[in-house]
Design a protein that fits this description.
Blueprint: H1 32-37, H2 44-55, E1 61-68, E2 78-79, H3 83-92, H4 97-105, H5 111-116, E3 125-128, E4 134-135, E5 142-147, H6 148-153, H7 155-178, E6 183-186, H8 194-208, E7 212-213, H9 216-222, H10 232-236, H11 241-251, E8 257-259, H12 265-282, E9 288-291, H13 296-309, E10 316-319, H14 325-333, E11 340-343, H15 345-348, E12 358-366, E13 372-374, E14 391-397, E15 403-410, E16 421-425, E17 433-437, E18 442-444, E19 447-451, E20 454-455, H16 462-474, H17 478-481, E21 490-493, H18 495-511
Helix pairs in contact: 3-7, 7-8, 7-14, 8-9, 8-16, 11-12, 12-13
């Protein structure tokens, strides 16, 4: 492996999350906004291939597709997130003067090539599903149409953006459903993977079902409700727990939540919360308590008993403490009287799942004579064999509007019609198929978002994306949404796409 550095100079990179920062491309400091718009935010092999296409005069038209190979967390679905972030980054994706100088200093690239990058902009087209759509393995979420150089250069940025946000949105959806569609707060800023990890996780968590965040900058930039009360430090900063609670209640009488586990939850914390709570009630104010340690089920039940006995049936209980969907579902199933769930580390990092399995593959290319031809990747591992050609994805629904299957077709070829009966084939196991008569219609999921380098429509508000995700989850049968051993949702290909794939396989094997 060849490793290229610039004069062996170590450059300190600082990433403050400043959403409004301009793309200054300053050498000593790259703000997060710089990172978003610099076309150096790409895998190095994309640049070496780009120079190869340029040098060999092979910058032909091409079509790439982004899909994922398996749903994370053993889930029966995933939530597509990060599209709006991707579109914004893609429109700003360019090489600055400093970027070009850096590439020149590596000694690998011809100056005529790097000079050609000075005016680089993405001028192709992008098709994608609606952000917030519930999605499944093997089907294209995004389709990129352009020349080979521009399609190749955006690969790393595209996958980085979509993979992480889709991972976190999926995790949050699982937490949200496990809570019985309850109130989930995202508390992950301090445990997220750096500033961009925190900001992206805040946005994706909101799409997945969180109703607010502790990330104040995320609240400002994305219009998400910001939430938070006190830490144990507030309680320990006062001579007594009662004084700490009273001081906080005086400052925030309409938003008082007491953290009651600093010393002893049942013998001290809840007793002082009730005492100060009476003073709030006398002024017509409600209050809540938060548990952040101990046996959450036992303590929440005991605290609820005390609150009810003392005449505070409206007092709320919030819990935190390294929660995830499995713990929350166990507490919910056990009847824990919890009103709000504060979830941090395991939601914004993905917990036990480190990454989303999204990939970016060539599906069609110009043959050099002006004809677009389908291509596919072959592999000894059937899961890594791709489906060829420029494709559309159809969501087939039953008469009640519930999702039945997703079907890939050749774009411009099959149009799935209501009332017709079709044979649909497994995308990998070519011998498996099923017949289905479409009773509720079929929707084409891939829609044009960027055409010839420009947006074709306004971007939706984040709240609308969040609402879409919730509606999409409701469109799935509960068997697909369960945490353990979910039913496998059908993803299939049409007869024409299957025939094309088999023909390419036959041609390839015949050449061996």
């Amino acid at each position: 492996m060849l490793i290229y550095t610039r004069d062996a100079q170590v450059r300190q990179i600082i990433y403050p999350a400043l959403k409004g920062a301009r793309c200054s491309h300053n050498r000593s400091m790259h703000t997060m906004k710089n990172l978003e718009c610099s076309a150096l935010f790409t895998d190095f092999y994309s640049l070496t291939m780009a120079q190869g296409y340029w040098k060999k005069n092979r910058n032909y038209r091409a079509v790439f597709e982004m899909f994922f190979r398996r749903s994370p967390f053993g889930s029966g679905y995933a939530v597509f997130a990060g599209l709006q972030t991707l579109l914004e980054r893609l429109l700003a994706f360019s090489f600055s003067k400093d970027d070009i100088e850096y590439l020149d200093g590596l000694g690998l690239f011809e100056k005529a090539f790097t000079h050609s990058l000075k005016d680089f902009r993405f001028r192709g087209s992008l098709w994608a599903m609606d952000e917030g759509t519930v999605v499944f393995p093997q089907e294209p979420l995004i389709r990129i149409e352009g020349n080979l150089i521009e399609c190749q250069l955006i690969e790393g940025m595209l996958l980085n953006t979509i993979n992480f946000q889709s991972l976190i949105a999926t995790k949050t959806a699982r937490v949200y459903l496990a809570s019985g569609k309850g109130s989930v707060m995202e508390f992950g800023l301090r445990r997220a993977q750096g500033p961009d990890g925190a900001m992206s996780a805040t946005r994706a968590s909101y799409i997945g079902g969180a109703m607010g965040t502790s990330n104040t900058l995320g609240g400002k930039d994305f219009g998400i409700p910001v939430l938070g009360t006190m830490a144990h430090a507030w309680v320990m900063a006062y001579p007594s727990e009662e004084e700490a609670f009273r001081a906080y209640a005086e400052i925030y009488p309409g938003r008082t939540v007491f953290l009651i586990d600093t010393y002893d939850t049942l013998k001290s914390g809840i007793q002082n919360a009730v005492k100060v709570g009476r003073e709030l009630a006398a002024r017509g104010q409600n209050f809540g308590i938060r548990l952040d340690s101990g046996d959450i089920h036992y303590l929440s039940v005991e605290v609820r008993k005390i609150l009810d006995a003392e005449g505070f049936p409206g007092a709320t209980i919030t819990v935190s403490n390294d929660l995830d969907e499995s713990i929350i579902q166990a507490l919910t199933d056990a009847g824990a009287p919890v009103n709000t769930w504060g979830v941090g580390t395991r939601m914004v990092t993905g917990g036990e799942e480190a990454a989303f399995s999204g990939v970016y593959k060539l599906a069609a290319r110009d043959d050099g004579a002006g004809n677009m031809i389908p291509v596919m990747k072959f592999s000894d591992n059937p899961e890594k064999t791709t489906n060829p050609g420029v494709k559309q994805v159809w969501r087939v629904k039953d008469a009640s509007g519930m999702a039945v299957a997703d079907v890939m077709s050749l774009d411009g070829g099959d149009v799935l019609e209501k009332g017709r009966r079709y044979a649909f084939w497994h995308p990998q196991a070519d011998y498996r198929h099923f017949y289905h008569e479409i009773s509720g219609g079929a929707e084409a999921l891939l829609k044009l978002r960027i055409d010839k380098g420009g947006l074709v429509s306004e971007l939706p508000p984040l709240g609308d994306i969040r609402s879409r995700a919730a509606a999409e989850l409701d469109s799935l049968d509960p068997s697909y949404r369960r945490l353990l051993n979910p039913h496998v949702y059908k993803v299939a290909v049409t007869e024409k796409l299957r025939e094309l794939k088999l023909a390419l396989i036959k041609n390839y094997i015949g050449d061996l």
